[in-house]
Amino acid sequence: MTVAPQVSEGADVTPDNGITAATVILIDDDHEFRKAIGDYLESNGVNIVAMAGVADITARELDLSQCVIVLDMQLGDADGLDVMRRFRDVTDAPIILMTGHRKAEIDRVVGLELGADDYLIKPFSPRELLARIRVVGRRHDTLRMARDEHAGRGAEKRVEPEPPRVYRFGGWRLDRRGRQMTDPSGNVVSLTKGDFNLLVAFLDAAGKTLSREYLLNATRVHEDVFDRSIDVQILRLRRRFDNGGGAAGQDGRSIIRTERGAGYVFTIPVEAD
After folding, report:
1. Among positive and negative, which fits the CA dihedral 16, 20, 23, 27?
2. The overall pTM is greater than 0.70
3. Residue 94 to residue 132: CA distance in whole angstroms
């Protein structure tokens, strides 16, 4: 779909005194749109990595440590939501979605629920995109700096405790050593190795928001941009809770709640011994 961007404003001379991500990864299968937007952003001092779709992504080694990802939802060779989900599995970098269909509200909502930070509807002003890139970049870098500072303060005091043997939550029970979970009726619920590691990560940090990057490391999944295992495992855990009758009156989606743009949180209080 070709949408001509409005690029007549010229370079944005507004000073940017905040913290911004180092690179913008621009993914859109429309060559003219991609070039026009890329040229505008570069004229405003933004480092651009432009790609047309999945083939370009897989062919390049991307540094996702300091970037903002700007992603079209209707790529020619893939579903943009699927690509976004795979990115989100391995990085908490800000993601801005672009769409040319005003009627696709449900897709935008799903994108935000899956972890997108913002979205724009084509046609839009490149100046607006630049402003949004700066906002999400500053916000992400500020949060990362605060997180790193907090981790540094806690490193000297950290003493590794003996891991709990048994977790209890909402009538459910997980035997960590036996790797066995039972539902409130006493039925044994099977877990794959990945599901077990994911659940333990949630139970050890109940009530706290965990990023997809953190969960990916906790489950020791190979860091592939297109690895969807975290989403799949969370879906399986939610279904297991649903099949077991839920917990504390909540269904699986409420037990493992999606925090837009941040990750997931396990909402049921946990007792461990």
Report:
1. negative
2. no
3. 10
